[in-house]
Design a protein that fits this description.
The chain is an alpha/beta fold. It folds into two domains: about 180 residues, D-Maltodextrin-Binding Protein, domain 2, CATH 3.40.190; about 100 residues, D-Maltodextrin-Binding Protein, domain 2, CATH 3.40.190.10. Strands 2-1-3-10-4-11 form a six-stranded mixed beta sheet, with helices on both faces. It has a five-stranded mixed beta sheet with strand order 7-6-8-5-9, with helices on both faces. Strand 6, helix 4 and strand 7 form a beta-alpha-beta unit. Helix 1 crosses helix 10 and helix 2 packs across helix 3. The longest helix is centred in the C-terminal third of the chain and has 19 residues. The radius of gyration is 19 Å and the shape is globular.
């Protein structure tokens, strides 16, 4: 069984299209019969993807006649070239990939949500600083090297907003692009002062003594959509049946993953696909899974992106969001 190395080097430019998927997760359920259509989906190698891995193993996609292969991507923006080229059918990633694609009129559409942050309590991503950095609060990030997985995306936009809200100068933050799995090593080496990371890395970094600074989504847009599901208008127009089947399977998968009765299976998917210590896999905070797109949170994120000049204008959400 192949596993994604959680703390190893993952070199992804647009998208890695070679075997990085779990053999169980990418195979149809034993109960499935008949021919299955092969579907390729790009997703980040993080704990949120456990819902997708688990849904595949539970046979939910096979029920709709689909055999899904999950391919690792560094972010939604990095997956879009492969999506446009037809190398993949769907992608799951942060909203800024489709935001920019819409501004360029590339024909990319959001067909559903995937995961969202929490409005209160422990959130699913955070900025964590090296214990040696002296960073204790958001304002302290001004003038420091802060890693995000994709420059000009939800991470740095919400971090800038959180720093400004805390009285700091967001223009002085030195953002550095570092893939999530590489952030712990870069932080330990002193190459960065802080890193914005999702689970399981938040739990790992805190457990080794690094400092929790802020959950930026929760600080500025509580309940923000963290991951959305995208495809192309060409696919929705020319292969509506596939989009319908995939969307129905995704909706059912996310409902399945959000059911507390299925949490052991979701956590088993984490163990099967990410090389994590069992205590970490058992304790990481899972997101709020759901298929319905929260347009209001996407609108607020787009407004912040324009305010901080990450985007020169806002995407057309009427054109971009095609809820299935």
């Amino acid at each position: 069984m192949k596993k994604v190395m959680a703390l190893g080097l993952i070199a992804v430019t647009a998208i890695a299209l070679t075997g990085c998927t779990d053999s169980d997760a990418s195979s149809p359920s034993p109960q499935a019969s008949g021919d299955l259509r092969k579907v390729r989906v790009a997703a980040l190698p993080i704990t949120e993807t456990a819902a997708l891995w688990g849904g595949i193993k539970a046979g939910i996609f096979a029920e709709r006649g689909l055999q899904v292969e999950v391919l690792p991507a560094q972010g939604g923006a990095q997956a879009i070239p492969a999506l446009m080229n037809g190398d993949i059918d769907f992608a799951i990633g942060q909203p800024f990939g489709p935001f920019r694609a819409d501004l360029q009129k590339l024909g990319v559409v959001i067909i559903g949500n995937y995961a969202s942050s929490y409005a209160d309590g422990d959130d699913i991503n955070a900025v964590v600083a090296s214990a040696k950095s002296g960073i204790r609060r958001p304002a302290d990030l001004a003038g420091k090297r802060v890693a995000v997985n994709s420059l000009g995306a939800a991470g740095d936009v919400t971090i800038m907003a959180a720093v400004e809200k805390d009285g700091g100068d967001p223009t002085r933050i030195k953002f550095v692009e570092v893939a999530f799995p590489d952030a712990p090593a870069q932080l330990a080496a002193g190459n960065i002062d802080a890193a914005w990371v999702p689970e399981p890395f938040v739990t790992q970094l805190k457990s080794r003594g690094d400092t929790f600074v802020v959950a930026p989504y929760q600080a500025v847009v509580p309940g923000l959509a963290t991951l959305t599901t995208i495809t192309t208008t060409e696919r929705t127009d020319k292969d509506a049946a596939l989009v319908e089947d995939f969307s129905a399977a995704m909706k059912k998968t996310l409902e399945w993953a959000g059911d507390p009765a299925n949490e052991p299976a979701v956590r088993q998917a984490i163990k099967d696909n990410l090389q994590l210590p069992p205590p970490v896999a058992e304790s990481v905070r899972l997101p709020a899974f759901g298929w319905d797109v929260d347009r209001a949170s996407l609108q607020k994120l787009a407004e912040l992106a324009q305010k901080y000049r990450v985007l020169d204008r806002q995407p057309d959400l009427d054109r971009l969001v095609h809820q299935q």
